[in-house]
Amino acid sequence: MRRINFRASRVSVLALAFAAPLLAASPSLAQSAPAPASPIPYDAERGVFTFAADLESALPAVVQVTTLGSSSGPSSGETEPRPMASGSGAILDAAQGIVVTNNHVVEGGQKFTVDLTDGRIFDAVLIGADKATDIAVLQITAPGLAQIEVASSDRLRTGDLSFAVGYPLGLDQTLTMGVISGLGRSGMGDRIEDYIQTDAAVNSGNSGGPLLDSRGRLIGINTSILSGGGGGNDGIAFAVPSRIMMYVVDQLRTTGEVRRGVTGAILGSLNAERSREFGLGIVRGAVVEDVAPGSSAARAGLRRGDVITRIGARPVSNAGTVQAAIGIAEPGTEVEVVYLRDGHEGRASITVEAGIERQVTVGAEVVMSRGASIREGADGLQVFAVEGGSPAAAAGLQAGDLVRSVNGRSVSTLSALARALDGRGEHRLSVQRGGDTERVTLP
Fold first, then answer.
1. For residues 83-102, average pLDDT
2. Same domain, 254 and 244
3. Helix (H, G, I), strand (E, B), or coil: what is residue 265?
4. Among the options 115, 130, 134, 190, which is catalytic?
């Protein structure tokens, strides 16, 4: 805690915060010692500490988003779409009526409405959505809109105050307070992961709403929670950082889709087991599982087994940190990385290249698909790593599994496996696990 020297005695910031209004209220005390500025906002008229003055300007820009679609019940002859999902959103551009929310709030919808805090409701048009970051952009035509201010998430620190705003559990607009619990979180199942973690209460209905700093500025979009059971709030919630959100929103507004940069490096996350395998004394980093021949990563000299520890000025927590940084970099951007190889530190400059959205990444010796990394072993095509929270992990695929067939067709080479797994839709895998044969369905 920061300490301040006041009249040769040291008192805490919190003590000064509470003393300030008392000093101001007492003429005798005020004459003997000038009242220090309170580090916590204080409303002298009401005699309370409050963040309302800074937060109130953001609240009119926080909206409720309702998604309508076909009813799943028995047909009643009605043709109008019915409400199927509800969440929150934030107005980023009042002049153009641009609203940001979560992809999972609008996914599968036929019609969308936006409710404002003043009671008005408007039909909305879906401009675009990005499943990998769970971001969607809606547009409404309405006069007199408020607009939220956006702050850079790159300046956040663990311990900063945070405020979640939204429409949880069928309630009207609700504000909750907490702190930034962590940065660079991953393992939630998305391909681009670099989440802000907060303990501000976030529940069903908060999805798509803003996470604010103590000045009322948007620093992230609330997207998911971890719950020990029952689906309620347990003080662990995640938000997409404003840095990633703004890149995705700009892309969706410009082209209706998101094009991400690539380098040709196939990455996995460093963990305790792999750290021991490499003989390292760290558990944070991104492991280069393979490098596509002729790619930017190959030209930069990266090799299989390198462990990336920094990208640009940022420390690397896991593979998601690198994927997020590369994914929002414009093609042609030079990105500096620091890596470990055989215990020695190295540096490389990698050029970000325009990427093509694919379900499968193919390297010289590794195929990665839906969070599973597979290579040829002595006994066949072996899964050697599965990202926590990935679609492959959710499907039950495990490290050590031997892939024997995909959709009923035998596969024995990496190229055959890549062809079989490419494309959208479910893929039925037959895998050998020990002496048993298991069936795994990858989405």
1. 94
2. yes
3. strand
4. 134
